[in-house]
Design goal:
Its main location: membrane. It is built from 17 helices and two strands. The protein is an all-alpha fold. The chain has two domains: 229 residues, Cytochrome Bc1 Complex, Chain C; 125 residues, plastocyanin oxidoreductase (Helix Hairpins, Orthogonal Bundle). The protein has a two-stranded antiparallel sheet. Helix 3 runs antiparallel to helix 5, helix 6 packs across helix 7 and helix 15 runs antiparallel to helix 16.
Length: 430
């Protein structure tokens, strides 16, 4: 999409540099003049929040890596040393540990926003697929990071999860041996996970770059799901309209983040992980971090080990096919009343799966996890395809500008005698 303006260097030095490396022009086109739909609500700010969180996780992780020792006899003590002896080590560690949870809170909101507003539909299929790949890389990074403190839950979580790969015929045992670096979880495992945990965030950053590139190529979706028809009426420049809104949302989000860092730093962790790993003592109830609990519940929904693993990975893989499973010509659930009901049922089902995943694998929780897992797959593979093709949606607005005026958000920026609409928000949108 073309922007509202074109960058023009004002000095001779700037022009010389721009002719040889047009990086300033690229930043201007991407973060200043880039046109965004003028009806975006605050759910669209989580992309910027996630970008800042990724940078924060990388920076804190690099500093922590300078003091961490990936050795099974020293890892736990090195974490305690970071907390007690390194200047502001407690702050860096709490920022990094709680930052993982904040990252997943933001990414889940970001993904559910995409599901609600149909941001996966054409021409944004590749954009959506890249987002799912980022989720997979995040999950791998977070799992390996959870192992590094070498507490009881770290050790036994690594043992249980890596053992799952043994369910795959022929190659399974070889994968487990490679992950372990031997015949049990130990020093080689810790070194592998430390190296991969350090590397994967930079891979995530690379895929995020592709994600943003794809976004800028096809343009942003919006709460109406209607494409931009008149760039002057339907869009506003990214700066200052979107940047002001993103900045306010980031401040609110980081206040929430800071509340956990300073007042509840260990609330999202498991108590057993503050005890050093002991291969001879098995915790009464092995559970992953909270953001893995829905997938953990799906894993335990079937008695077959291989079936559970396939079902767990299938819960993520099904998202890759979402652009083709949804046959609706209308994107936004604001205009799809039947789909909107099933969307909120899906949200409730995912929360319910998370709750079940935190419970022991006994009756009645196993039966409940089977019902919840069944509904999860039914939503994507049966309900969504049928509803999207049979539902009669509400009439769409003729343009983004019309939807803004219809919702009483004020006049259009740039029209004679009319004041600009700061923030470009749509009041009354979900």
């Amino acid at each position: 999409m073309e922007g509202h303006s074109v960058y023009q260097p004002k000095s001779g030095v700037a022009k010389w540099f721009e002719d040889r490396l047009p990086i300033v022009g690229l930043v201007h086109a991407s973060a200043v003049a880039y046109p965004v739909p003028r009806n975006l609500n605050y759910f669209w700010t989580f992309g910027g929040i996630l970008t800042v969180m990724l940078v924060a996780q990388i920076l804190t992780g690099v500093v922590l890596a300078m003091h961490y020792v990936p050795d099974s006899t020293l890892a736990f003590a090195s974490v305690e040393k970071i907390m007690r002896d390194v200047n502001y080590g407690w702050l860096l560690r709490y920022m990094h540990a709680n930052g993982a949870s904040m990252f997943f809170i933001a990414v889940y909101i970001h993904m559910f926003r995409g599901l609600y507003y149909g941001s996966y539909q054409a021409p944004r299929e590749v954009l959506w697929i890249l987002g799912v790949l980022i989720l997979l890389l995040m999950m791998a990074t977070a799992f390996m990071g959870y192992v590094l403190p070498w507490g009881q839950m770290s050790f036994w979580g690594a043992t249980v999860i890596t053992n799952l790969f043994s369910a795959f015929p022929l190659v399974g045992p070889s994968i487990v041996t490679w992950l372990w670096g031997g015949f049990s979880v130990g020093d080689p495992t810790l070194n592998r996970f430390f190296a991969l945990h350090y590397l994967l965030p930079f891979m995530i950053a690379g895929v995020v770059g592709l994600h943003i590139w794809a976004l800028h190529h096809v343009g942003q979706n919006n709460p109406t799901g209607v494409e931009v028809k008149d760039i002057r009426k339907d869009t506003v420049p990214f700066t200052p309209y979107a940047t002001l809104k993103d900045s306010f949302a980031m401040v609110c989000f980081f206040i929430f983040f800071a509340w956990f860092i300073f007042y509840l730093p260990n609330f999202l962790g498991h108590a057993d992980n503050y005890t050093e790993a002991n291969p001879l003592v098995t915790p009464a109830h092995i559970v992953p971090e909270w953001y893995f609990l829905p997938f953990y519940a799906i894993l335990r929904a079937v008695p077959s080990k291989l079936g559970g693993v396939l079902l767990m990975f299938g819960a993520i893989a099904v998202l890759l096919f979402l652009p083709w499973l949804d046959g609706s010509k209308v994107r936004s659930a604001n205009y799809r009343p039947i789909y909107r009901i099933f969307f909120f049922l899906l949200v409730a089902d995912c929360i319910y799966l998370g709750w079940i995943g935190s419970k022991p694998a006994i009756s009645p929780y196993v039966g409940l996890s089977q019902l919840a897992a069944a509904y999860y797959f039914l939503h994507f593979l049966v309900i969504l395809p049928i509803v999207s093709r049979l539902e009669t949606p509400k009439p769409l607005p003729a343009s983004i500008a019309d939807s803004v005026l219809a919702n009483g958000s004020g006049p259009l920026p740039g029209q004679p005698g009319l004041a600009p609409l700061v923030g470009g928000s749509t009041h009354g949108q979900v």
